[in-house]
Design brief:
With about 200 residues, this protein is α/β, with parallel strands linked by helices. The chain has a single domain, classed as Vaccinia Virus protein VP39 (Rossmann fold). About 35% of the residues lie in helices and about 25% in strands. It is built from 6 helices and 9 strands. It has helices at about 10-25, 40-50, 65-70, 115-125, 150-160, 170-180; strands at about 30-35, 55-60, 85, 100-105, 125-135, 140, 165-170, 180-190, 195-200. Strands 3-2-1-4-5-9-8 form a 7-stranded mixed β-sheet, sandwiched between helices. Strands 6-7 form a two-stranded parallel ribbon. The termini are far apart.
């Protein structure tokens, strides 16, 4: 058996462990989790192994990423076969009607801005009443100085594609609110990233 289909991201390798710690803290013992923008598949492999009570459903917009995801997760029976998913579509084929959590890392800044609204609307459609949307990556915050590395990263992204770039947390929260979701928790992470937890607002 060859590892040839496996793609490798050094950043995904570095941040998988601290992300898993937060997922283990936030999530109950079992459930069904949809991962959006699974990329190489490294997060699916590492995090699903650390959440043995969870059924992990990986996906990616890029069909060419699916073989790598499948290769990383080949020996993990709790991980489903990856599916192609476009968050902008009003229906997400292959996704259960209700899931307990949605996890999306490092997508919002390397996708057109419209994808943020698509992600939020899809999460509102598919999350159970107590379900969580967990996003991870770098963000711009109005009251928090932006790290020089993140400013450089933002400039590089916009030079590569004008539709890309770091997103203002306030703008993301506005899209979430339009879909009926609210920010529950902001968790600072290594390398100037944030893990954000979204869910339905608590009853008044």
């Amino acid at each position: 058996m060859t590892d040839a289909p496996r793609r490798h991201s050094p950043a995904a390798e570095r941040n998988a462990a601290p992300i898993l710690v937060q997922l283990q803290r936030l999530l109950p013992a079992r459930g069904v989790l949809l991962e959006i923008a699974s990329g190489t598949g490294q997060h699916a492999a590492h995090c699903s192994a650390g959440l043995p009570g969870w059924r992990w459903l990986p996906s990616d917009f890029d069909a060419s990423a699916l073989p790598s995801i499948a290769a990383w997760c080949a020996n993990l029976p709790q991980v489903a076969a990856p599916v192609q998913l476009d968050v902008l579509q009003p229906h997400w084929p292959g996704v259960p009607a209700v899931v307990d959590a949605i996890y999306c890392a490092n997508m919002l800044h390397i996708a057109p801005w419209a994808c943020c609204g698509g992600l939020m609307r899809g999460a509102a459609r598919h999350l159970g009443a107590a379900g969580l949307l967990i996003t991870y990556g770098p963000y711009l915050e109005d009251e928090v100085p932006t790290a020089p590395s993140n400013l450089a990263f933002d400039a590089d992204l916009r030079a590569r594609d004008p539709a890309w770039g770091l997103r203002r947390l306030a703008d993301v929260a506005q899209q979430a609110a339009l879909a009926g979701l609210a920010l529950r928790e902001r968790v600072p992470m290594p390398a100037n990233n944030l893990l954000l937890v979204w869910g339905r607002p608590a009853p008044a």
